[in-house]
From TrEMBL:
<keyword id="KW-0472">Membrane</keyword>
<keyword id="KW-0548">Nucleotidyltransferase</keyword>
<dbReference type="GO" id="GO:0004306">
    <property type="term" value="F:ethanolamine-phosphate cytidylyltransferase activity"/>
</dbReference>
<keyword id="KW-0812">Transmembrane</keyword>
<comment type="pathway">
    <text>Lipid metabolism.</text>
</comment>
<keyword id="KW-0444">Lipid biosynthesis</keyword>
<feature type="transmembrane region" description="Helical">
    <location>
        <begin position="20"/>
        <end position="47"/>
    </location>
</feature>
<dbReference type="GO" id="GO:0005737">
    <property type="term" value="C:cytoplasm"/>
</dbReference>
<feature type="region of interest" description="Disordered">
    <location>
        <begin position="204"/>
        <end position="229"/>
    </location>
</feature>
<keyword id="KW-1208">Phospholipid metabolism</keyword>
<comment type="pathway">
    <text>Phospholipid metabolism; phosphatidylethanolamine biosynthesis; phosphatidylethanolamine from ethanolamine: step 2/3.</text>
</comment>
<dbReference type="GO" id="GO:0006646">
    <property type="term" value="P:phosphatidylethanolamine biosynthetic process"/>
</dbReference>
<keyword id="KW-0594">Phospholipid biosynthesis</keyword>
<dbReference type="InterPro" id="IPR044608">
    <property type="entry name" value="Ect1/PCYT2"/>
</dbReference>
<dbReference type="InterPro" id="IPR041723">
    <property type="entry name" value="CCT"/>
</dbReference>
<dbReference type="Pfam" id="PF01467">
    <property type="entry name" value="CTP_transf_like"/>
</dbReference>
<dbReference type="InterPro" id="IPR014729">
    <property type="entry name" value="Rossmann-like_a/b/a_fold"/>
</dbReference>
């Protein structure tokens, strides 16, 4: 038997022996002064290796992931992206792109930085938020993520994110081997929502002017169908579980509350 194995066995013997002495002392009501009289050896001498009582927890390093975005007119596609990003790590840090960067790369945002920060911060998957993040992952910002924020991976959807010059906004992260990809949620985007708002406004003007209405003053079926929109985000049981807390239900003494609303153009005041 080698030395390490033998030491491990003696450590176990000492542990049980010490535990037995303490238990006996407690049962007999003996005071510590009694032990002083019979000269029980000091604890460091009696136990060669105190480390066995203070073993360090072998907890693995928590993985921190980063995802950025404009998050303008936040919708379920944004929420699904952040949910997927959080699943790739233990802590999710979200960068909210500045108004100036959005204007330079895409066009003016509908919601201000303050409003977009409030929306992102309210989601349960988000642990930290970085305001005024750059639209492109520059070398300077990437080093800041790795060194200051201790980010392990940078995450983005599988849809291409190109800069005005046609280059990939995440090229440096991919080159560094610190990039992970999630699946984009089809069927919804902030641009699509803006288009639907404009279409809805146009339909309202048509209805107000009695154009496109039936003789009875009701909207024409064609006009109604034109303004309709079918979501591709199917609320399957699997999807519901993904967005919920899994199998965790309310406890026996939990207070369950209910609130309703249209929740159209979900905003911070809806949170």
């Amino acid at each position: 038997m080698d030395l390490d194995h033998s030491s491990w066995m003696w450590d176990g013997v000492y542990t049980h022996l010490f535990g037995g002495i303490m238990l006996t002392a407690a049962l007999l009501g003996l005071s510590t002064s009694y032990f002083g009289v019979i000269h029980v050896p000091s604890l460091p001498f009696f136990l060669p290796d105190l480390g066995m009582f203070h073993q360090k927890k072998s907890g693995k390093k928590r993985i921190r992931v980063y995802m950025d975005g404009c998050f303008d007119l936040m919708h379920y596609g944004h929420a699904n992206a952040l949910r997927q990003a959080k699943a790739l790590g233990d802590e999710l840090v979200v960068g909210v792109v500045s108004d100036e960067e959005i204007i330079a790369n895409k066009g003016p945002p509908v919601l201000s930085m303050e409003e977009r920060l409030a929306l992102v911060s309210g989601l349960k998957w988000v642990d930290e938020v970085i305001a005024n993040a750059p639209y492109a992952i520059t070398e300077e910002f990437m080093h800041r993520l790795f060194n200051e924020h201790k980010i392990d991976y940078i995450i983005h959807g599988d849809d291409p994110c190109l800069l005005p010059d046609g280059t990939d906004a995440y090229a440096l992260a991919k080159k560094a081997g610190r990039y992970k990809q999630i699946k984009r949620t089809e069927g919804v985007s902030s641009t699509d929502i803006v288009g639907r708002i404009l279409e809805s406004s146009k339909d309202m003007k048509v209805l107000e002017g009695q154009e496109g209405s039936s003789p009875h003053g009701e909207p024409d079926e064609k006009s109604h169908a034109k303004g309709g929109h079918i979501s591709h985000f199917l609320p399957t049981s699997r999807r519901i579980v993904q967005f919920s807390n899994g199998s965790k239900g309310p406890g026996p003494n939990a207070r369950v509350v209910y609130i309703d609303g249209a929740f159209d153009l979900f905003s911070r005041w809806s949170c």
